[in-house]
Structures are given as structure tokens and as C-alpha cells.
From TrEMBL:
Signal peptide: 1-26
One Pfam family of this chain: SBP_bac_1
Species in which this protein is naturally found: Paenibacillus sedimenti
This protein's name: Extracellular solute-binding protein
GO terms for biological process, alphabetical: transmembrane transport
Keywords: Cell membrane, Lipoprotein, Membrane, Palmitate, Signal, Transport
Length: 452
């Protein structure tokens, strides 16, 4: 394993990661805690093993990050799986800092069996590069869940591929976007912006009312990149998201595309109008989210986990509104930059049979439905995103994601060093210390090193 590359993971955050500090609203879970085998099984089809399935036994360890989505679903699904497989000894390694705590074990070649790739310190592309994950390519082709449904037929987004191979399967479907308070906008008579021109006009009105139009999570700039910059680049590239994919593949020619500069200039326009809260650059995601909830700021770039993460701090009457993008030109399509959190099996897992069986178990429709209910976020199972049990902001996202007027961008994952360079450059751009051209040069210098 390349230990130098692994060490960069603590500094870099992937496009697909949930907020690095999401653990603030989640109660820490004890590391290496045994699953509650006494929990009553749920009366769903997925609570029983498939007929003829191999009997599972031995130790089985699951690593999962507890952030904005909480851990209610994990407790439930693990208890259900334990009830269906009583001879297994399931160990949960979980919590807001679990990825950091488990890193020495991954490096030492003693990883857990099953891993939820989400939160800080885990970066799917880097894990694949370092040979940490099991190759699931052949297994995934025909594998069925415990209900007998072919998993590949159920997914809204297919697994990412690395040189044509599959190592992780997406379970959580998230869309980046811009949040606002519908109740505040209704009270003030402000309209939801449909494009960048309307966003800028509305922001002028908001600023005149004494409220900062826009705040971002300065210490975690991948929020403004994922929710603002990437959609802007796609819109500027005639709604073709292949440019983002080429950028992620370190194609130096792609980085010369003028659509990147056009997208960056949207940040410049917003900055030069004084619409970006100057506090942004100094604070983390939860602090910026708190200011947003207090109506100190009207818009915030974020992911669908935001309302659940801040549930304890949401004022009475606050009504989350969600727009996937605000950077399209008048008449242009909305761009939904989606991301997924994925499940994988360690290459050096000691109980691969149990890990694969658990994968088949969690991709049952019943478990996916429970995820939407218990986490407040959509799963990657088709149809689940518009579940009537989902919160209103998730339903808003579902309408956009299912609309023919929306460009849905599949998950794009950048190399760790490149992603870090983009984050740093975006912060510098928001405060005016560099130009869009400087931004591109900074990042392409890092891309060029990756090519060597």
C-alpha cells in the first residue's frame, strides 16, 4: 500500500463525502460494540435468509460512520441481520470519528469485513488505488438481494467504475443544492430563483433587507464546489457533464475547457456584489448552518443531510426549500449534482461470505425504505426517493431528479490531491485573492503531478 497516499486522505475530502463534521448532531457510538442480538426482527421479507443460502457463522465486523444521517437505520438493519443469522458474531465499529480510529488497522492489513464509505478519512478512489477493496465486478453482474431481485436492476445510480472494475456499490443517494427557508421567503415576498439572473436579483433584495444572501462552509469548501461550482460548469458546457468526468480522470485537455472559467466567474460575480457572507471563510459547516437557521443568511450550499443533521437546532416554523442549482442561465435546465455513499468489502476481509450476504440483505427494498424513514434521506433504490414518508425537502429533490428538465450528474470522484487543490482554490476565489485563471492553474499543476 502507498502509505503516503493514504496519509493525504486525512486532508482531502471527496466530492461524494458527507460533511466532515457531521458527527456534531449524532451521538457517538462505541467502537467495536457488539450488535444487539436481542432486538426483535422486523416482519419484512428481508428478515429471513434466502432459501438455500449458505449458513453464516464466525465473526463479522461492520465499519460505519455516524454523521448527519444518524445511526438509527444501522442499529435496525444490523439487528435484523443478526436475527436472520444467529450464529454470526456481529461487531459494530461505528461513530463520528470511526474512520480516523480505524485507519491504522486498514494500513496494517487488518480491516473490518464490511465498510460504509462515507465521512472524513475515507476516499473511495484512493482505497481502490491502494488495493484495499474487494473486486466485486463479476459478483455484481448477477447478484440478487434476499428477495430475489437483481440488485443492478434496482439501482438509480450504478456503481462507479475504476478501469472498468467495480469495488463499491452506492446505497445512499444525495443531491447537492441550495437551501433556503420557504417560510421566510413567503413572509418577505421573495421568489425562489429559477436561474442565476433571478438569484442575483433576489440576492440584491435580500441584501437590502439587511440579510446576507449567501453563506458557505469555508473550512469545508467541497460544499460550494459540489452545490454551486460543478453545476455552473455543467451548465456552461451545454449541460454535458462528461467534462466533470474527464476532469476527474485527470485529463489535462479537459481542464482547458472554457466552461470551467465561466463557472468560476459565477462565484466572482456573487463575490463582487458582496453577496457572500465574509464569515464563511473562517467557520465550519455547522457554524454556517446555524447562521443560516437564524436567518443571518438566506441561501446555503449543502447536501440533503442538512435538515437531519441540524434537527435539534431548527427553529419552529422553519421550512426547508431545496434547489439543485441556481447557476443556469435563463431558460436553462436545472443541474442536480448527485453524490452517493457506498458499501464495500475489504480485500483482506476475514468473513467475505457474511459481508456479501449483508450486502444482499441491505439492498432489499424493505431496508431501503427504512433508510428513507429513519435517516431522512433517499436511498439509491429506484422509487424510494419519492416515498410518502420522506420529508418535504426530499420530495422537492425527487421532483427535480425525476424531471426531464433536470440534468442529473452521476457521482464524480476526484483524486485526493486534486480535490484538495480545488477546495483551497475555491476559498481563495471567494475572498478575491486569486482569479479564475489562477484557480485553474493551481489545480492543473496538481493534476500534472498526478499524471507523472
Amino acid at each position: 500500500m502507498n502509505l503516503k497516499k493514504w496519509s493525504t486522505m486525512g486532508l482531502a475530502v471527496s466530492v461524494v463525502l458527507v460533511a466532515a463534521g457531521c458527527g456534531k448532531s449524532a451521538a457517538p457510538t462505541e467502537t467495536a460494540k457488539p450488535a444487539a442480538a436481542t432486538a426483535a426482527p422486523t416482519a419484512v421479507a428481508s428478515a429471513a435468509p434466502t432459501t438455500g443460502a449458505k449458513k453464516l457463522s464466525g465473526d463479522f465486523e461492520i465499519q460505519y460512520f455516524v454523521g448527519g444521517y444518524g445511526d438509527k437505520w444501522w442499529k435496525k438493519v444490523i439487528a435484523d441481520f443478526q436475527a436472520a443469522n444467529p450464529d454470526l458474531k456481529i461487531k459494530e465499529s461505528a461513530g463520528p470519528k470511526i474512520n480516523e480510529q480505524m485507519k491504522p488497522r486498514w494500513i496494517a492489513g487488518n480491516p473490518p469485513d464490511f465498510v460504509y464509505i462515507d465521512g472524513p478519512e475515507l476516499f473511495d478512489r484512493q482505497m481502490v488505488t491502494d488495493g484495499l477493496l474487494e473486486d466485486l465486478t463479476d459478483w455484481y453482474k448477477d447478484v440478487k438481494n434476499v428477495d430475489g431481485d437483481k440488485i443492478s436492476d434496482l439501482l438509480a445510480q450504478q456503481p462507479p467504475q475504476y478501469d472498468g472494475k467495480i469495488y463499491n456499490i452506492p446505497f445512499v443517494l444525495n443531491s447537492w443544492g441550495i437551501f433556503y427557508d420557504k417560510a421566510l421567503f413567503k413572509e418577505k415576498g421573495w421568489a425562489e430563483p429559477k436561474d442565476f439572473e433571478e438569484f442575483m436579483k433576489t440576492s440584491e433584495t435580500i441584501k437590502a433587507a439587511g440579510i446576507n444572501p449567501f453563506i458557505h462552509t469555508g473550512k469545508y469548501p467541497y460544499y460550494i464546489n459540489g452545490a454551486f461550482l460543478y453545476p455552473a460548469i455543467v451548465s456552461a458546457n451545454n449541460n454535458d457533464y462528461k467534462l466533470l468526468q474527464d476532469m476527474a480522470n485527470n485529463n489535462l485537455e479537459a481542464w482547458k475547457n472554457p466552461a470551467i472559467i465561466k463557472g468560476l466567474n459565477k462565484i466572482v460575480q456573487m463575490r463582487d456584489k458582496g453577496f457572500i457572507d465574509k464569515a464563511s471563510v473562517q467557520i465550519n459547516h455547522t457554524d454556517s448552518q446555524s447562521l443560516f437557521l437564524q436567518h443571518k443568511d438566506a441561501f446555503i450550499p449543502n447536501g440533503l443531510w442538512l435538515p437531519n443533521e441540524m434537527a435539534k437546532d431548527v427553529p419552529s416554523g422553519f421550512d426547508f426549500g431545496f434547489i439543485p442549482s441556481i447557476t443556469q442561465d435563463k431558460g436553462g435546465k436545472v443541474v442536480a449534482n448527485t453524490s452517493t455513499s457506498t458499501f464495500a468489502i475489504a480485500k483482506k476481509a476475514k468473513n467475505k461470505d457474511a459481508a456479501k450476504a449483508f450486502m444482499q440483505f441491505v439492498f432489499a427494498k424493505a431496508q431501503a425504505g427504512q433508510w428513507a424513514e429513519l435517516s431522512g434521506a433517499p436511498s439509491n433504490i429506484k422509487g424510494d426517493i419519492s416515498s410518502s414518508k420522506a420529508p418535504n425537502f426530499v420530495k422537492d429533490a425527487a421532483k427535480f431528479l425525476s424531471s426531464s428538465d433536470t440534468v442529473v450528474v452521476p457521482t464524480v470522484s476526484f483524486a485526493a490531491d486534486v480535490d484538495k487543490a480545488m477546495q483551497d482554490a475555491s476559498v481563495a476565489l471567494t475572498i478575491g485573492t486569486i482569479t479564475p485563471e489562477d484557480w485553474v492553474k493551481r489545480v492543473t499543476d496538481v493534476v500534472a503531478k498526478q499524471k507523472k
